[in-house]
Every structure is written in C-alpha cells, then in structure tokens.
Amino acid sequence: MKNNTKVLIIVAIVIFIGILRFSQSMDDFSTYNSEWHGGEEIKSELSKNHTVISMPEIDDLTGYEPEKTAFIILGPDENFSTTEEETIREFITSGGLFILADDFGTGNSILNNLTSEIAFSNLLVLDDVNYWKNSTFPIVNLSISNMSNITLNYPTSLVVQGNSTNILASSSQFSWLSPDGNIRVQSGSFPVIAEIPYEQGTIVVISDPSIFINSMLPFEDNGLLLENFVKNRTYVVFGEKNHTPVVPAFHYLLKTNPYAQYLFAAIFVSLALLYMRRDQLSKNGKNKKDKAHIQDDVLELDEDNIIADILSRNKWDERKVKRFKNELKRK
Questions:
Q1: Are 132 and 238 in contact (CB under 8 A)?
Q2: Contact 57, 230 (CB under 8 A)
Q3: What confidence tens digit (pLDDT) does each residue in 211-256 have?
Q4: Closest CA to 26 of 44, 40, 45
Q5: H runs (alpha helix) in 22-120
Q6: Residue 129 pLDDT greater than 80, yes or no
Q7: Which residues contact 206 (CB under 8 A, 6 or more apart)?
Q8: Is the pTM of this model over 0.85?
Q9: Contacts of 59 (CB under 8 A, 6+ apart)
Q10: What does the alpha-carbon distance between residue 43 and residue 35 come to, in Å, rounded to a whole number?
Q11: How confident is the model at residue 20 (pLDDT cuts 50, 70, 90)?
Q12: CA–CA separation, 198 vs 114, rounded Å?
C-alpha cells in the first residue's frame, strides 16, 4: 500500500510539472509568455472588462459575432493561407475590429490582401530628442481622447496613401528613418498608428507590437492603448497561430470541437473501467499463470513416466537414454 502511494505521488508530481512546462510559451508577443518579451499581462489586463480568448486557429474566428469582437494579431512571423486571409476579411466586412501590430514581421502580407491604403515601411524609426533610454525607444504623442503619449521599442513607420485613413499617432519632427540604425534615409514626422474603415468594420494598424509586451506596459499610456480600441467589444480574441503551447491547445480543442469531446470522453470512460476492474484483471492474469505452470508440470511428469515405462519394458540402460535426451535438448 505504501509503495502504491509513493508511485501515485511521483506520478502526480510529474504530471503537474508537465502541465506547467507545456502551458507556457517562450515566443515573442505570445499571450502565454510571462517573460519580459511576452504578452501575458496585456491579456490579463483586458480580461478585467472583456472575455479574452487566445485562439490557435484563425478559422475559428467564424464562431464569434463580428460586431461584438476585436481580433488582435501581435508580431506575425509567418504568412497566412488564402483561407485564413478570407476569414479575416469576412470578419472585418461584417463589422469586426481587426488590430494588427507589427514592425518587421509579415504584417504586410495580410494588409496587401485587405487594402492598398496602408502598409509597414520596414524601416526603423529613431528619435534624437523625444525618447526613453536611447533613440530606438521614441516617445510619440497620441490623437486619442484621454491619452497623451506612448513609448515605442524599436518601431517601424506606416506608409499611408489613402485619404480615408485616420492617423492616430506620429513620431516627432526630430525622428528619422533608417534600414539599420545608422544610415539616415529620411527625416521628419512619420505615422505609427492609424485606423481605416473597411466596409462595416475597422482596421487598426500599429507599427510596434512591443508596446504590449510585459516589460513595456508600465510606460506612459502603453497599457491603456488596446483597452481604448476594444472598449465597446465584448470579446477580445488574440490570434496565436503556431504559438499555442500543448496544454492550452488541447484545452481549446476540447472546448470548441465536439468530436474531440466525444473521443476524450470515450478514452476517459475506458480508462475508468479498466481501473475499476484492475483486481479482476490481475486475478485472471494470475490464474492463467498458474494454469501454465500446472500444464508444464503435467507435461514433465508424463515425460518421466513414459521414459520409465520404456526402460522397464525393454530393459534399456537408463544412463544412455538420459544422455540421448540431453543431446536432443542441446540441439
């Protein structure tokens, strides 16, 4: 009994450590990442006033009412499929709010399929006057009510070409663009946050996802920026394509997929039945073992009787018979 208790404790500890290990992510901007470069805190802040979901599959966006939902992608690092892009498009056109925060990732691949009025320049914005720490952390003013300014972290700028785009934040006149932080390509003020109406919905483009990482939220109004955009939305959905750890992905699958629920229930019931019948199964196994031993003994007994009978009938030398028998066994 004591040994069984020890085994159960060890198994419980291993399972607990495994759940912790596979419940977190080390990916940049991931809402499952609690480190300085993760987005766990912004998710926690938004959870105070909204239902927040970290969604591993873009296709699942169809399950939410667009007019009540904000869909956020922070720092995309790979292109989306045609089906995923079409899902995002339908979400926005039906009244959804789409917030895309990127700097040097794959954000333009999404924007190119939505609009030609706005894009990321992929050039670094630096500011020699208005900054925190150094010129790669520019401070910019906001044209948003109840907000003053935010601190960026190695941002890019936006290229705005359409008249319908509303610029909400720009760098100061002392800022400049560079491909590598050394060569000065252009000087002046550059847009860094903008919004554009898109049929019944809205697209908000932010040229720096690092505003929302755990280490940058305490600066200026960084922590209030997303809340300002999503304040009228019930659901806030973070796109976590390929950044969802194993345990949360499994939990999300069970919550959203009825087939996965049935399969898990069947496996759970089967294991429970096996556990409840463990004593009977163990007893059956033991009985089979005992029967096998008895059969072996009977075979051995029969063999000895046969040899003894042959010896007595034919008056053969017992030693020669045993030697012959041993030779056969060796072969």
A1: no
A2: no
A3: 999 999 999 999 999 999 999 999 999 999 877 665 665 555 555 5
A4: 40
A5: 40-46, 82-93, 107-111
A6: yes
A7: 99, 100, 101, 102, 192, 193, 225
A8: no
A9: 83, 84, 87
A10: 13
A11: very low
A12: 9
Place of tokens 């163990």: 282
Both tokens of residue 126? 């630096």
Q: What is the DSSP letter of 62?
A: G
8 Å CB contact between 216 and 151: yes
Segment 168-202, tens digit of pLDDT: 999 999 999 999 999 999 999 999 999 999 999 99
- Beta-carbon contacts of 220 under 8 Å, excluding residues fewer than 6 positions away, are 139, 148, 149, 150, 151
The enclosing H or E element of 254 equals helix 246-256
Residues 61, 67, 72, 77, Cα dihedral to 10°:
50
Token representation of residue 131: 């900054």
Domain limits of the chain?
27-244, 284-324
Query: How far apart, in whole angstroms, are the C-alpha atoms of residue 262 and residue 103?
Result: 42
User: Rounded to an integer, what distance in angstroms lies between the CA atom of residue 5 and that of residue 8?
Assistant: 5
The string of pLDDT tens digits covering residues 79-123 is 889 999 999 999 999 999 999 999 999 999 999 999 989 999 999
Query: To which residue do tokens 């394509």 refer?
Result: 241
DSSP conformational letter for 131:
B
Residue with token string 């907000």: 147
**Integer Cα distance of 217 and 42 in angstroms:** 8
Residue 142 CB: number of other CB atoms within 10 A?
Answer: 20
Q: Which residues pair with 206 in a beta bridge?
A: 101, 193
27-244, CATH topology level: Rossmann fold (3.40.50)
